[in-house]
Structure formats: structure tokens, C-alpha cells
Write a structure and sequence with these properties.
12% of the residues lie in helices and 31% in strands. It is of the alpha+beta class and 186 residues long. The model has no long low-confidence stretch (mean pLDDT 92). Strand 2 and strand 3 form a beta hairpin. The termini are far apart. Strands 1, 2, 3, 4, 5, 6, 7, 8 and 9 form a 9-stranded mixed beta sheet that branches. It has a single domain, classed as 3-Layer(aba) Sandwich (VC0467-like), CATH 3.40.1740. It is built from 4 helices and 9 strands, in the order βββαββββαβαβα. It is globular, with a radius of gyration of 16 Å.
Amino acid sequence: MSALPATGRLLVATPQIEEGVFRRSVVLVLHHGDDGAQGVVLNRPIEAGIDSVLPGWESVASSPATMFQGGPVQLDSALGLVAVPGDSPAPTGVRRLFGAVALVDLDSTPADVATEVSGLRIFAGYAGWSEGQLDTEIATGSWYVVDAEPGDAFSGDPGGLWHRVLRRQAPPLRWVAWFPADPELN
């Protein structure tokens, strides 16, 4: 297994990633083990109504109530992430991953789940890494691995998440939050 397990933590893209879905992204790692890693990009809302894809779920979703691009893998599939408060068992149709974070079965009835969760986000696709791939990307400086805070996965301002996560880190990592979008224009 990786020397730096990342399950339940955030991957924050370094300025080394200059383009694509991972540019200035914040990824919540859902699994990181010997077999690879999976996660979802938390700060890529897309202009797609949830109800047009999954009727009934939009009214349960955290603001902004839109779909998010979870990553470049299987964009034709949907993954529901929820927050289950407290230490109580997860409700029917919900599987706790770590802490308050859980996956919801999107074939469940939204009204049955809504009263049991405190946040919901729907992702089109996910981010995935083969065995050892994420470890290599971390070692070569593509990602900062930092602790997640409870509200990160359901932030009402996903566009500002990259900056906020970096600003709450200790120096010198904190200073990366002010790295210009285009260093050549600096």
C-alpha cells in the first residue's frame, strides 16, 4: 500500500497540472489501496440539471443543486455522495465510507433518504488511478494531500474550494493559494 494513504483526504492539484479536469481541482479520495484509487472532483459543477438525469434528487441536493463532473472516468454514470450525521447506522440505500461521508444508491427513493442525510452531491463520473499510479503522481508533485473538512464535499461555493483549502494550510503550502492562474501574465 501507499506510504501516504489518502482515503478520506483531499488531493489538491498543484500548479504543475496546467489543463484538463484536474487543473486547480480538489478531489475527495473515496478509496486508496493496493488496487488503486478512486475519488470525485469536488469543484467542477456542470450545467446539467439533476432532475433531467435522476428525477426527484434535485430537491435533495446541496446548493448549487446541479450535477458535478466527478472526473474523467465513466462520465455516463452517476455517483451520489451524502453526509450522514453522527455515528448512527447509515439509512437503507446508503453505505458509509468514512466519517460522515457515504455513497447513496441513486435507485433509492429520494424522499426516504432526504430526512436521514445532511448533504447530497451527484457526480457524473469519477477520478480513478490504477495500482501505484496515484502514489507516483503524489511523489512527482502533481498533488498535495491534505486533510478534508466536513463541509468540503458539499461546499456552496465549489468554484472557490481550491483557494479555500490551500489558504487553511500552514505556510509555505498556504502561499500556493495566490499562485497566478497564468504565471506568464504575472
